[in-house]
Known about the structure:
The chain crosses the membrane at residues 21-45, 57-77, 89-108, 114-136, 143-165, 177-200, 221-242, 254-275, 287-305, 311-334, 346-364, 370-393. Keywords: Cell membrane, Membrane, Transmembrane, Transmembrane helix. By secondary structure, this protein is mostly helical. It has helices spanning 6-13, 17-39, 45-52, 56-59, 61-80, 86-106, 110-131, 135-138, 144-173, 175-181, 183-196, 210-217, 219-239, 242-249, 257-281, 283-304, 308-323, 325-334, 341-369, 373-396.
Amino acid sequence: MIVKTGETAARAAGRSAARTWLGVGAVAAGTFTVITTEMLPVGLLTSVAATLGVSEGTAGLTVMLPGVVAALAAPVLASATARVDRRIVLCGLMALLAVANTVSALAPSLAVLLLARVLVGLVIGGFWAVAAGLAVRLVPERSVATATSVIFSGVAIASVVGVPAGTFLGEAAGWRTAFAVMTVPALVVLAALVLLLPAMPPVGVARLRDVPGVLLRNVRVRVGLALTLLLVTGHFAAYTYVRPVLEEVGGIGAGAVGGLLLVYGTAGIIGNFTAGAAAGRDVRRTLVTVSSVLAAAVLAMPLLGTSPAGAVALLVVWGLAYGGVSVSVQTWFLRSGTSAPEAASAVFVSGFNGAIALGALLGGRIVDSVAVPGVLWTGGALAALAAATVLVFGRRS
Length: 397
């Protein structure tokens, strides 16, 4: 079945342009809420570890586990909800996110907290599998690139507002309060999705048997998956432990970390829209640039980031580069030419979140068994391999 363009669908529903873009904004707000919840432990690892009596590496499981679950859940949920209106799917997932945040806030032990993070992983996998390619169903074809950048801006805004705010709140009132507060935006976004999104009957949805076929038949999807695994694993091996990196490598006080994450996220927003526009013109060149700059910034941190000024400068470059990752990689998948777009999105979501989990796990093992700077060398090397992959194999595809 052929998916209608956003323009045709909008006209058929008699929706105004303003309402259409409000719907895009609601999906972006959902992206913001999901990513903030996913990344919230990054700024709270120290306090979570202290409260629950575990090491920082073990506390990193709160980042790793949702990624594993999301990677497994993306194709399964896309298939299981194949006959359900996509608006209803998104709304149900936001309701589940509110429950997960409430359980996290009340968790008496690491085991219960990890159970709540499993629920978060289900939300991440399902939400991204649907939302990642939703722009084409909401806006005219000429506006798809812009709408995609807006939807993915929720990732960068989560870094700017969500994670730093959670870090500040966790320092002031405890990490449990930070999770409890995240229930509120989940409920607000739920209401916005109900009110602003049109009915979106499932068309061209992913079936589990479609996913292997997309990988086997489409070389662009395979290159995109390899790129995602290398780049995102490298980033999260280092970024999951950015707080210890800033404190131990950069000599920055704990009280300044929240503010620096705000700076990082602001750079990420700029990187998101810059890369989104560039990817619309030449996605391969954009991905080579983003991967190379990310690798350079992370590899330079243990060499040039040993002072607060150097660490902050490199953190800004890091934020600019990573801000462009999600929108650029998703653009690559959208242009893969596959006849099963949600199957390709499921591959993207599974690879992305599996890489988050692998990066967090790898970084945790390095932090606990080697040293904090080791995550920077590892992360930078993987990002450099990602740049080489798209440089060499991207041209062939």
